[in-house]
Write a structure and sequence with these properties.
heterodimer; A: 325 residues; B: 304 residues; mainly alpha; elongated
Chain lengths: 325, 304
């Protein structure tokens, strides 16, 4: 076990280096970046540009610049974000709380509901309810995120929910709070509603589908029949004996979807003006802030590599039938 | 039958159409998809207007409402106009062309590269396999949407946004998504190459290329077909997301995604601008996913 983890970690390091090399290769020659503001300034001559290039080290060959960049990254320095006027790492770290509050809420919600729907589907397969849940999962898989967001804005923010006595509740469709200086929990929660619905809807479909197929398999096993033969109650059989094994594949699915969640939902955060990492990335893209794009892509890729490793180790640990290779 | 064709167990699913037709949702999906494809192919004849023409007669700054809201418009703009006065129905029909074509061509690229490299990796094994799989590791570790956005963003910034042509989008999507297909094909080839018929094909002196394409590939085709179908659906969503964010198909060319790019601003003045293109995406993608599910059941019940 320990050897396996160590070996996988050591394998991850060259992978991360190759990823960063490719990303650096793609982005180093991209327009924008450190020289962009000077290039746009008519008062700066070609000679100035050459001097600036030299001073910033931009005239060195790409491998040399990459080595220097890597040296900085190892010390936690991802460069300076021009669009945020602060170091890249600082800009990203600042957005983590907003992204976390959005993602943690939708993860918990979609896991709870997705599990419940998936288990119900598996316990009563091919029933009317199962049919509805399966079709619903198809909708989740086929729904363009941004359109769902637009429709929710149209329905719940523009038109609102009509209440008796002529009241209409209109949910806020943008931002993290009405008054950003005075944080209040109810206000924050109200702002969470729409983006959380959008994000949960998609992962909920995924989780319910996987829970269903994994639980269906478990329901057919011998130890479930044994448990039933011992006279245990049906809920005990399903929730204590079945779920323990049925949940194992779900661990992988959730672990693999975590980097996407932590990286922020680019589309959802942009539409709802949620000040998280996804919107930070999109704004950097619009402003050609190369340093930030580079930092973001590296960090999210590193998370993908880490959670892949985590998923494999967790799977092997939870399921003794799986052998380390 | 020549000696080289000893392997005649090419995958012929018994009663494939019968199995597929038993999957009711797949049949519904197939009917819907055929209708969508027909309306895309015949957009030129079906569309009542030029999709980029602005109708100044009806349009006065706000989206013109569709026929069922404003009966006076019925002879003209059946679904109303968008925020700059272009006929919505015509744009939807021409948008279908773009959205479907981007997805289909990107899938063709993805499947071609993925199948070729996956087959080579699985067939030869050894260091070739090791190298190709490390490459797929790299691609699969970089999240797709941000990478796509960065690449299309670089193309757009290098010259101008108009350079984000149809071909560029197709190429970028196809070139970045092949690794999952390569893994799939490699896994099939790893087990297929050990089977007797592969050994027989080798024993009678076939060249590697012939063994790969004539003997092994036909037996590995089922999962590839399913993956290709599902990826057409995925790529329709991907293209529409890119176009919605402004880094996909550029206006005035209509795609279902870029028709929604300004929809947030017109939610109050014309909801139909936001509703119809998204509905087209949802219905089409749903139909394709139903077909994909039916194919999976019909081709190989063990694949789920």
């Amino acid at each position: 076990m320990f050897n396996y983890v160590v070996r996988r970690t050591l394998q991850a390091i060259p992978l991360l280096i190759v990823i960063s090399m490719i990303l650096y290769g793609i982005l180093s020659e991209a327009p924008g970046g450190a020289l962009a503001p000077y290039l746009a300034n008519p008062h700066i001559t070609a000679a100035d540009i050459t001097r600036l290039k030299h001073n910033l080290g931009l005239d060195a060959p790409i491998p040399v610049r990459y080595a220097i960049w890597l040296g900085h990254v190892v010390t936690g320095d991802f460069g300076y974000s021009a669009s945020n006027s602060e170091p890249v790492l600082q800009a990203i770290v600042d957005r983590v709380p907003a992204t976390l509050s959005l993602m943690a809420t939708s993860l918990v919600l979609s896991l709870l509901v997705g599990l419940a729907l998936g288990i119900y589907s598996a316990v009563k397969p091919y029933s009317l309810a199962d049919y509805f849940i399966t079709t619903f999962a198809f909708f989740g898989q086929s729904m363009p995120v941004f359109w769902l967001a637009l429709m929710l804005q149209l329905g719940l923010a523009v038109h609102g929910i009509p209440l008796p006595a002529g009241y209409i509740i209109k949910l806020p469709s943008a931002g993290i709070a009405t008054d950003t200086d005075n944080f209040s929990l109810p206000d924050h929660l109200v702002h969470l509603v729409l983006p959380v619905i959008v994000l949960s809807f998609l992962s909920l479909a995924l989780y319910s589908r996987f829970t269903r197929s994994s639980m269906l398999e478990v329901m057919r096993t011998d130890y479930m029949r044994t448990a039933a033969a011992k006279g245990l109650s049906f809920p005990t059989i399903v929730l204590k004996h079945g779920l323990k094994n049925g949940l194992i594949p779900l661990v992988t699915i959730v672990a693999l979807s975590l980097p996407g969640l932590l990286g922020g939902a680019i589309v959802t955060e942009t539409i709802f003006s949620w000040p998280g990492m996804g919107r930070l990335f999109y704004n950097a893209l619009l402003q050609e802030d190369i340093a930030l794009l580079m930092g973001y892509l590296c960090l999210v890729s590193a998370m993908v590599v880490f959670f892949n490793l985590f998923a494999d180790v967790a799977y092997a640990w939870l399921d003794p039938r799986v052998k380390y290779d | 039958m020549t000696v080289g064709d000893i392997d005649d167990t090419v995958y012929k699913p018994v009663g494939f159409w019968r199995k597929l037709s038993r999957h009711k949702l797949a049949v519904v999906g197939l009917v819907v998809l055929v209708l969508v494809i027909l309306s895309a192919v015949f957009a030129k004849f079906l569309a009542p207007f030029d999709p980029t023409a602005i109708d100044n007669k009806w349009w006065n700054g706000d989206p013109v409402p569709p026929c069922f809201i404003n009966a006076a418009i019925c002879g003209h703009h059946l679904l109303g106009t968008d925020e700059v006065g272009r006929d919505l129905l015509s744009r939807l029909l021409f948008g279908a062309q773009i959205s479907l074509q981007v997805a289909v061509f990107a899938v063709i690229i993805e499947i071609s590269i993925g199948t070729l490299l996956g087959a080579i990796a699985g067939f030869y094994g050894g260091w070739v396999d090791w190298l190709l799989m490390r490459i797929t590791d790299v691609f699969l570790s970089i999240p797709l949407l941000p990478l796509l956005l960065v690449l299309t963003g670089i193309v757009a910034a290098s010259s101008n946004k108009a350079s984000l042509s149809f071909g560029v989008i197709v190429l970028i999507i196809g070139a970045l998504s092949w690794p999952s297909v390569a893994r799939l094909v490699r896994a099939s080839f790893l087990s297929l190459r050990e089977r007797e018929f592969a050994e027989a094909a080798r024993a009678v002196g076939n060249r590697d290329g012939r063994i790969i394409f004539r003997h092994l590939l036909p037996n590995a085709i089922a999962p590839i077909v399913v993956q290709a179908t599902l990826d057409v659906a995925n790529f329709i969503i991907l293209e529409s997301t890119l176009s919605f964010l402004g880094f996909g198909i550029q206006p005035p060319t209509a795609s279902w995604g870029n028709m929604l790019a300004n929809a947030e601003a017109t939610l109050t003045s014309g909801w139909w601008v936001a509703v119809f293109p998204g509905l087209c995406i949802l219905v089409t993608v749903l139909a394709i996913n139903f077909i994909g599910d039916g194919l999976r059941d019909a081709l190989d019940p063990n694949m789920r």
